[in-house]
Amino acid sequence: MLFLRSYFYIYLHYIPANILYHLLPYSKIALFITLRCTIGVFTLLAEFALYKAACKHLSISIGRFFVLISMLSTGMFISSTAFLPSSFAMAMNMYAMAAFLNEKWFYAIFATAVSALVGWPFAAVLGLPIVAEMLILRPKWKMFWYYAAMSGILVCGSLLTVDSYYYGKRVLAPLNIVLYNVFSEHGPDLYGVEPLSYYLKNLALNWNLAAFLVPCAIPLSAINYLYSWKASAEHKKWGIPVHPTYWRHYSSLFLLFCSFSLWCLIFFVQPHKEERFLFPIYPLIALLAAVYKSLNEHLMDHQHQLDFSIRGDPLRVCVGKEWYRFPSSFFLPQMAVDARSRKRGVQLHFVKSEFAGLLPKYYPQGKIPFITRRIPTEMNDMNQEEMSRYVPLDTCDYLIDLETPDQTTDLEPNYGSMTDTFRRLYTHPFLLSSKSHWFYRAFFIPRVSARKTAFANYTIYQRIPPTTRA
């Protein structure tokens, strides 16, 4: 007889369940629901780890779309709290993917080992990116085998100890699962077979359009990569970049897609199909769909117009008369990325305008509470202008202003006419309250409001280099 279930997997859940039992001693239902909430928290932490890794190594927008798509997915809602080995494998695979993107190889291998040996053996397929990266693309043979052996000994030793105790004989449950499902005469087909449409319907119900965006992620991201990273002559052959060095920054995403494709290839052709068999690739669906969504917007946005190689760090975004209307520095990104993925910090600064009052000032550099205890300089309680707040116009990399050509002064010129210094990066219509009827400002009436209101262009200007620094 083959013993297919590991008591070690149950034991991992027994630890929090035992604590919860003493808090909820009289309700098995409450205990079970609370345990599932605990599983959900464990999955949440895994998802957060993958989100941080995606933001750091892919892009912030990909990370945000990953979270958004996961939140709206019925599949993630079901799988993230299920008391199933495949759900456990899904969570551990998220930890493994996060470690893979962060190049923390021991954690990546160990999480994959736990996912496959404690959770579900077939989840080892999702370790393909780690194997390919460490054995083929950037060979680290000794490190790989050392970490793999260490992880195998730790996990298999724990499994053998616990399962052999409970079964009364030496048992390695993951091996038995493989023997039963792959090498037995009947395998799992005894429990029913389904057509391919079963998985397609399941993906459509649980992921809506996101599941069908995944195949588009790789070609779109490859086009974006070719567009953003110009290949040098030594990386090209027949005019096409083929050198592995050129594709190094892209390889992690491609390998994740390969692991997703391999999983689908293996399980979609199996006669026996269950929804839980798809759980381990649910995070990959969200991540790859996020890649499509993010890069689709990237190709349509203005990032391709940015070139930070000729600009300082941090970038200076300046406002003049718009100091009181521009939302605040909270609406500026912490980090901006140009078309070649060069990163720069972003700071808000003021240029002189007709306003002659006291403007805000940055906190001094340092640690809390020392900077909050320091008496600020160049301040007053009379709303008197402090000239130290301003930076010269020629030090600004970008300028935000409302174009009002009929209201220009020497201190508030029409920057749009300074074509030798600035060029428009982006403009958007802005309602002019002083030239619009109060009623039609408040209530939009088709065809009528357009005649009773006036608009001007709210514009982001990009300074034509060179930009000087004071």
From TrEMBL:
Its EC number is 2.4.1.-. Signal peptide: none annotated. The keyword Transmembrane helix applies. The chain crosses the membrane at residues 7-24, 30-50, 62-85, 105-132, 144-167, 207-229, 250-271. Keywords: Endoplasmic reticulum, Glycosyltransferase, Membrane, Transferase, Transmembrane, Transmembrane helix. Its main location: endoplasmic reticulum. One of its GO terms (molecular function) is alpha-1,2-mannosyltransferase activity. It is an enzyme of class 2 (transferase). Belongs to the glycosyltransferase 22 family. This is Mannosyltransferase. It comes from Nippostrongylus brasiliensis. The lineage of its organism: Eukaryota, Metazoa, Ecdysozoa, Nematoda, Chromadorea.
